[in-house]
Amino acid sequence: MFVAWRDLRFAKGRFALMGTVIVLITLLVGLLSGLTAGLGQQNVSAITGLSADGIAFDEPGDGEDLSYSNSTVTRDQWRRWAEAPGVTGAEPLGIATTKATAGKASAGVSAFGVQPGSSLAPGGTRIGDDAAVLSTAAAEELGTRRGDTLSLAGHELTVSAVRGEASFSHTPVVYTSLRTWQRIAPPAAEKTDAPTATVVALRTDSGADVQAVDQQAGTRTVSRDDSLSAIGSYTSENGSLQLMRGFLFAISALVIGAFFTVWTIQRSGDVAVLKALGASTGNLLRDALGQAVVLLTGGTLIGTTLAAAVGAAVSGSAVPFSLTPATVLVPAAVMIALGALGAALSIRRITSVDPLTALGSAR
Amino acid sequence: MSLHLNDVTLTYPDGDGRLTALDRVSMHVPEGSLTAVVGPSGSGKSSLLAVAATLITPDSGTVTVDGTTTAGMGRGALTELRRHKIGIVFQQPNLLPSLTAAEQLQVMAQLDGRSPGKARPRARELLDAVGLVDQADRRPHQLSGGQRQRVNIARALVNEPTVLLIDEPTSALDHERGAAVIDLITRLTHRQATATVLVTHDRAHLGAVDRIVEVQDGCLGAPRPGRLTAPRRPPGLPPPGSGPAQPRGPRAEVL
Ligand SMILES: Nc1ncnc2c1ncn2[C@@H]1O[C@H](COP(=O)(O)OP(=O)(O)OP(=O)(O)O)[C@@H](O)[C@H]1O
Ligand SMILES: [Mg+2]
Fold first, then answer.
1. Closest approach of chain A CAs to the CA of B81, in angstroms?
2. Count of domains observed in chain B
3. How is the beta sheet containing B17-29 ordered, strand by strand?
4. For ligand 2, a single-atom ion, which residues have Cβ within 5 Å?
5. Is residue B119 part of a domain?
6. In this structure, is residue B114 part of a structural domain?
7. Could you list the residue ranges that cross the membrane (chain A) (predicted)?
8. Which domain holds residue B161?
9. What is the per-residue pLDDT across A251-300, written as a single tens digit (0 to 9) for each?
């Protein structure tokens, strides 16, 4: 690193410029990551928090995808799952987006209907036909506390507890009994009996033949995490944000690659001299890569710190920003890895520099 | 402790055929002696130097550096040989722009695996030998052309090479500075006991060299003793092998 360090200092203008670009891209990637995770949580945390390993949907029609908003499972379907061997838990779960009011406050909420005592809801034992458990955000928006009453789509309910951060499709969750939910949810047109629930949340052990039960019951079962794509807004939102992030990663790798390509070409004369004087190619490659990693790490560190600072500043406000090691450190690591890859590809041309060119008068 | 070229032939691809740049060239340069290679443009001087520097592998013939014959050696081994045994002084000083004069020399010691603690005094010692201690902390753009050429020479000597190869050292210098550089090379050759080859198309200043060989169309003429044609030995030139404590010749200060 003898020459590499001195080059960094000597050509500080150029490296500072490149460092700034890395800082800005990392900042952008960090913010986007936090935002993606924050938005995602608003969308799916009620599902990812379910104590279930599979979700059984009503089998969708031809060419249709699974969807939480289109699925309705009947009592019969639920029974078949509950009685199937290897299924240790089969609990109906009703989901409906509706409006809740308390006093003058009103909010769009996701009403989750569960059986009283169910483990699907936090504080499930406090749920009854006239009682609801509110997520923190729902309670906050409605300005209610334990013991207050609220009206959920016209039904008077008492707030029996305020628990958890569950959110579904960007609306806070209100847990109530399945029976209350059934009165709120619009009946499915093509079904003769009233809907029992939206999906069945399953806990299975290795003895369960999920496919066979699916066929019998006319359902389609996916894992809990795969079911997230059945939340309408989640796939498109998350997809476009991830695409942006992917592009930023690709852009940074290309920009860094371009910078080091130009830099390596510029100093190929020096490289030829060093080779002629007895520097091994491996040595020169190591130095150049070390230089790139120093630049990358420095820039990424600053960018990530800035992103974390911005994230900390906006968290708690209306901006859904999730500040966790995964949202901060993973993008930083990816930036460094991809940047180093871009740099490595451009530095490779050191290998082909001919020391013979150091002789003669023209460099 | 010398340089041997034995029956070296080198050709370059030239259209459909090959162009013979060196035609069965043999040459022996003993340690502590300076051989000047002169000849017209295109005669093969630089090719000769490149072969001796192990930068080109000849079509046939052998190069022996300090007892090691380079034929069949891999690229890594040749690089190592260059690092330990061969000093190259380039036609253009070819200094690294980000390094000070002292650091240009320290890089070489570093490449050779010497600790910075040992590299620094060695760099100073050599900069002193070429009369540049006061400029040790200057970068190339803060040095004159002649000073740069002297750093170039000092750099070639850092790892105590047994063979010193010098390409057209005076081409970018005026007459007086050119003479001083040749003088410096002569003194350092004797003092460091290197087998030195000096390539030049400029026959001026060659009074003090030990031998002069002429290249013509890739063929080497018979060597003639350089000193016989010299009008006089330059002042300050010590007898070969008389130790490092030489006073610097007056010409080094001209640069
Ligand atoms: N890489 C090459 N490919 C093809 N031919 C070459 C190459 N390098 C040199 N030659 C040819 O080989 C011959 C010898 O070239 P060389 O550079 O050794 O001459 P030189 O004596 O150093 O000349 P000058 O004094 O102009 O530097 C010339 O005819 C030249 O055109
Ligand atoms: Mg030449």
1. 8
2. 1
3. B17-29, B3-14, B60-65, B68-69
4. B 46
5. no
6. no
7. 243-265, 293-314, 326-347
8. 2-94+146-229
9. 999 999 999 999 999 999 999 999 999 999 999 999 999 999 999 999 99
